[in-house]
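Posting for a labmate who doesn't have an account.
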Amino acid sequence: MTSPATARRLWALGEPYHALTYFADECRSAAEATGLTGFWSTYFAMRAAPLGPVGPAVVTAAFYNFAPAFVARRVPRVWEAADPATALDARLAGVDAERRGWWSSPSRCP
């Protein structure tokens, strides 16, 4: 059985990269290049992209802590701006660009 401490360590290692998807300028730019606009539409498209072109019920269930009506205002409309494969490509390209910039510029290092 996995201990909560092990799960927490794994979360702590991955969360900084996960957060980049939503808050890094490079990710925002990559999303905008696909036609996605607005924080929440970009958030839902980039986070739900690995699930495929799912509807609001699946996204609400998978993400757990959002009101169904809040999700339904954005999903499935986000798939009109960028299909899931395009959104996922943008997500990965944005994170890659942010990390490359961070490593290549000492002024960006914490």
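Reply:
Got it, the structure tokens are right above this. Residues 4-108 form one domain.
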